[in-house]
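>> Question from a student workshop board

For tomorrow's exercise we were told to take the sequence and the ligand below, predict the bound structure, and bring the output to class. My setup keeps failing. Could a helper post the expected result so I can at least see what it should look like? The ligand is zinc ion.
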Amino acid sequence: MRIHLCGVRGSTPAPGAEFVRYGGHTSSVAIAPDGDVPRLILDAGTGLRRVTGLLGGAPFAGTIILTHLHWDHVHGLPFFSAGDRDDARVTLLLPEQEPQNEEGSAGAEEVLARGMSPPHFPITPAGLRGDWSFGSLAPGVFKAEGFTVEAREVPHKGGRTFGYRVSDGHSAMAYIPDHCPTALGPGPDGWGEYHPDALALAADVDLLIHDAFLRPDEVAAEASFGHPAADYAVALAHRAGARRVLLTHHKPDRTDDALDALATRFRPDPTVTVAAQGQLIDL
Ligand SMILES: [Zn+2]
Ligand SMILES: [Zn+2]
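>> Workshop helper replied:
Here is what the output should look like for this input. Compare the format with yours to find the bug.
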């Protein structure tokens, strides 16, 4: 599989001269079967706009899977021009939400429309052109666009959040862009307690793409926002047996120089790299 990092920022986009090398778009990762165009997209932050450029003028035909519904993971949806055209075919899947009333769980399209409809936004999901379908996911294993995908719920903050493990039968990657330790305090490696589902998603993968929002000196003040120190991501990867870890979901005020410093701090460990928008990884 070929993995395109289309957005590696957390919280909100970060335009500006200080953010050129690592990029300013929010979370989106596009996955292509070998020798093909992307068909499976994880998260629809503003980085989703870059997927249009990977398709060579063709419409998108594939599946978008959301980890959760925070703005930085959905705001690219109405600006995905390869998906918003009459000849596009898009399946959008998101974590099933808790029932809002006694009639049962809310439908995926309805949940999405809560944040994407007037007066918040000019159109609803139904206003997207092309053949769009919307569905809810429970934790478990399913097939999407020829990939095997495993969904597990992981701790974050303010909204049900999944991590995903994607395999093509040859290699496997795990994507956990928003995730915090189950409890503050040192835990087994000094960075917080691990959740068994996060460890299971990352177990023996070729690549783990993981939330690295905070520096250790920021944890005390900001851990309540649902993100870990980068060191937690690295320690989790090692504990789970992941062969590589890519640190992502960068804080929006983390400049290129600051991310260089993060990379330098981990450089003695060749399995750790810092995600940059536009990066391509072949597994
Ligand atoms: Zn996020
Ligand atoms: Zn989030």
